[in-house]
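Suppose a colleague, Dr. K., hands you the sequence of a protein chain of 215 amino acids and asks what its three-dimensional shape might be. Before reaching for any lab equipment, you can write down a predicted structure in token form. Begin with the sequence itself:
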Amino acid sequence: MPLDASQFYLLRASNGWNILMRRGMTPPKISSGGARYEIVERPRRRSIVQWKGDDPWRMSVPVIFDGWISEHNVEYDIRRVSQMAQSRGDLSPPFTFRLDGALPVSGGLWIMESIEWGDNVYWHADKRGGGNRIRQDATLNCLQYETEVILQISKPPPMSVPYRVTSGETLAMIAAKKGVTVDSIRVANNLRDGKKIKAGQRLMIPPPIGKNAAK
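The predicted structure, expressed as tokens, is then:
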């Protein structure tokens, strides 16, 4: 059955909880987030504007835990939502969640920064003299959740290295020593005749391609 976004929000937590809440008396509001800019002053000229990045959205969502008509106990849902605003224990962050409904920012993951509990509260007394809430209003202060992106720094490609020819060496001998092919040395040094090298000549040796590259 599709969600009636005109009446309800559905909170879907990362641990599998689904919590249905009635829309509050006031609309949700964005308090911060979006594109971030910086004004850069320039002497004797008009200042320019530079984009510095995007900040995650902060959104306040008024809700009502409402079981008043059917006298339904809403304490269980209240406790579950309260747990969204605190860690699960040492080194365990709070659960993330998705929020469905008519919202100024839809989609994506959210975390609960805080909860403001209101005064629109109805209690239902039980036979033991206690009671439970059948209505409670609140404002959920949500922060858009962005995971850390770890940069993978790749190694730079291997480069050619200089080599000084000694007396009596041939390209074949140098290629075998360096693990490259004769042709690769010829191409790297623009040699038309690979036999015409002499002692003291400086060559650039390309990086080896494989273990058996030398010929």
